[in-house]
């Protein structure tokens, strides 16, 4: 196929292709290897099979009524909704198509079309507030476009979930032009006739138009600075048009000052840096060097405190957690705070931030978030999280044997008894956390 993101080659009979892919789908569900289908679809089927209990499941509705209204009103894609309607509204009004917009987690924010087509979509929960990422809806254009970060079409029986196989859709991801972060996707859903190059080009052009609009309306740079200290031993500070990389000791000092905006004495900072093992004079010398580097407009003494308003990446994580936005917090978390630091104050803060995030991921029982944690360098040896992930996998999931093997391996290393069935020893959580620290 000339373009792997297009569903049909030129001249292909749609009806025959539906039957051909349908046979491959049933063979795959029976344990066979998918044949004669696009690799992007085969890979998506495998991800869907790992995540879902079967091919007849219905996506859950995660945002309802007022919660949905509040969320989408604040979402960046709300600003480009008029562009979506202008470029794709004609399709949604012709009686055969739907226009849908989802966020980066696959939650549908807007679904628009004629009443009759909307009623048909409701039967498969293709409605605002429903979650249509692959892990909850299987292979579908908006969910798979998010997974592979590319515009594509999903044609009829290429959908993993049987209730969706009478539809065809084309979708394209949309990114924040300032940061490159994935914001969501724009989708057109309808009949088999959508499987043509024009629908894919149209959604891609619409996504580019939205990104161009957002890029032309970026807010001016904030006067406040920002500190990045997660997942790195040396913090970076952006302030006053400058970006500087600090040494390890100055990184620790800056982080400690950030969490004490009221200011700290030399003795208090010395205790946070060294415990009882150093004279405050040593710390004052370090602070003087830091003040010369940053300038008096940023750092003052008596007490030592930051004069300018600085934000920090670890503060972003904790703010998101306070608002219950765990997925976004995990997305922002680049790793432990100054991981190479053994300063008592930094260690306490590092443990606090990671502990809050870990507890939120663990208690949420979201399979995607658990998997993201386990695939990170800091979460790869987290036995309790592996066990929680195993409990969320369907019994027949192809990933389950690998997960159980990893659990047993870690349990042996920690000298613990694994609990792959779900009934873990009462002291496992404490033991694992102690082993990790």
TrEMBL record:
Q: Does the keyword Heme apply?
A: no
Q: Which domain of life is it from?
A: Bacteria
Establish whether keyword DNA-binding is in the entry: yes
Q: Which positions fall inside the OmpR/PhoB-type domain?
A: 241-306
Official protein name in the record: Transcriptional regulator
Q: By its UniProt entry, which Pfam families does this protein fall under?
A: GAF
Q: Which UniProt keywords apply?
A: DNA-binding
> Source species, please?
Paractinoplanes rishiriensis
Give an example GO biological process: phosphorelay signal transduction system
Q: Molecular function terms in GO for this entry?
A: DNA binding
């Amino acid at each position: 196929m000339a373009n792997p993101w297009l569903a049909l080659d030129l001249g292909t009979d749609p009806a025959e292709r539906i039957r051909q892919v349908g046979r491959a789908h049933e063979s795959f569900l029976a344990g066979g290897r998918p044949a004669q289908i696009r690799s992007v679809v085969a890979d998506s089927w495998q991800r869907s099979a790992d995540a879902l209990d079967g091919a007849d499941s219905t996506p859950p509705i995660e945002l309802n009524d007022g919660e949905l209204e509040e969320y989408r009103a604040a979402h960046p894609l709300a600003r480009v909704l008029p562009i979506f309607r202008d470029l794709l509204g004609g399709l949604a009004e012709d009686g055969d198509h739907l226009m849908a917009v989802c966020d980066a987690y696959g939650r549908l924010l807007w679904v628009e079309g004629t009443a009759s087509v909307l009623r048909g979509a409701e039967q498969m929960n293709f409605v605002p507030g429903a979650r249509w990422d692959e892990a909850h809806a299987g292979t579908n254009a908006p969910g798979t476009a998010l997974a592979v970060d590319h515009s594509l079409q999903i044609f009829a029986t290429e959908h993993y979930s049987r209730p969706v196989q009478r539809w065809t859709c084309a979708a394209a991801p949309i990114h924040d032009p300032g940061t490159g972060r994935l914001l969501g996707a724009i989708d057109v859903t309808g009949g088999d006739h959508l499987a043509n190059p024009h629908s894919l080009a149209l959604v891609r052009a619409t996504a580019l138009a939205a990104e161009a609009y957002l890029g032309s309306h970026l807010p001016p740079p904030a006067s406040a600075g920002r500190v990045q200290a997660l997942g790195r031993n040396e913090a970076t500070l952006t302030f006053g048009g400058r970006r500087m990389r600090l040494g390890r000791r100055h990184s620790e000092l800056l982080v400690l000052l950030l969490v004490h905006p009221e200011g700290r004495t030399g003795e208090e900072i010395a205790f946070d840096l060294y415990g009882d093992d150093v004279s405050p004079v040593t710390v004052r010398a370090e602070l003087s060097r830091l003040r010369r580097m940053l300038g008096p407009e940023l750092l003052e003494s008596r007490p030592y405190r930051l004069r300018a308003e600085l934000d920090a990446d670890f503060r972003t994580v904790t703010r998101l957690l306070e608002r219950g936005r765990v997925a976004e917090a995990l997305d922002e978390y680049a790793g432990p705070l100054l991981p190479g630091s053994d300063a008592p104050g930094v260690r306490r803060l590092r443990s606090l931030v990671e502990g809050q995030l870990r507890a939120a991921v663990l208690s949420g029982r979201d399979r995607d978030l658990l998997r993201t944690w386990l695939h990170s360098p800091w979460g790869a040896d987290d036995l309790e999280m592996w066990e929680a992930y195993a409990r969320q996998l369907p019994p027949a999931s192809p990933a389950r044997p690998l997960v159980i093997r990893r659990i047993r391996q870690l349990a042996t290393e920690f000298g613990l008894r694994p609990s792959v069935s779900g009934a873990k020893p009462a002291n496992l959580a404490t033991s694992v956390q102690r082993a990790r620290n």
